[in-house]
Here is the input.
Amino acid sequence: MAASPTVTISALDAGQITLPEHMFVTDADPKKKNLVPSLSFLIRHPEPDGSLTNLVFDLGVKRDLQYSPAQQKELDIWQPIITDTDCAQSLRNGVTDAAKTVDDAATTNGLLLDPAKDVDYIIISHAHWDHTGTPSDFPSATFAVGSGTLDLFRNGAGPAYPAKFFNDDELPALRTIEFPPISRTASWAWKPLGVLPHTLDFFGDGSLYVVDTPGHIYGHVNLLARLAERRYVYLAGDCCHDRRLVSGERDIGLYDDGHGGLRSIHTDTAEAKKSLERLREFVKSKADEGIEVEVVLAHDPIWRRENAHKCWPGKM
Here is the structure.
């Protein structure tokens, strides 16, 4: 029997932001802040002719922090913000501490991948400023976003996320596609995968799935990648912002919404909890089958600190 198609994944540094812990988890110190990565990921898909298709998941923080005035005001909450290494630089030169852990450290001398020429696809998990990065660094890539994201860039998402917090020209219009709504029947249709109700087989061979993950903000998607016959990686984006929510040790934090009530970091807290529970169920169901699923959050400083060897030019 032929082996199932697989991809490789390498983490990329794409800036760092600071998260007030009480905004994300329950029972948190109201004064505690955590400097966390905003991770991107390079996914490489082998083609029949021996070439590789390069896909990047998320772009992290803009290198120059040139956001709209309303966005700039919001950035104050997340300071300090560090952009010493952005996604494009990580692709070109490799992740600094990763070079010490890979077998052939010499490969980090010179250009590894050219963002302008070597990236075929970019999937943006969602429209928030710390994931959209600097799209102009990738003039030949096709961008893909979750259903409703382009409308979100134009019109915002209600009082919590008004249009002024987004840029309607954030992504290149002629090179951006939007995944179809989950209710629509199309040739590229959402299908269940185990307990995950809506997934898209991106390459058509079972090596990479786009996972509809509602709750955080409209159009939020995750990726599930097969690295080996019995090993997967689940890139969870902002499904949650703390590994203790994946383990069930903590719950989603609530904070003052500025209008006399409470809100979470998610647009729909109930839906976000359902998405998180489905993720836990999926990981458990695969473990019962003897299949490992490594979950990686976009903003997990512990994972980044312990896994330099999984950063480009290393791989997971």
Notes: The longest helix spans residues 269-288. The chain has one domain: 8-310. The first strand starts at residue 8 and ends at 12. The mean pLDDT is 92.
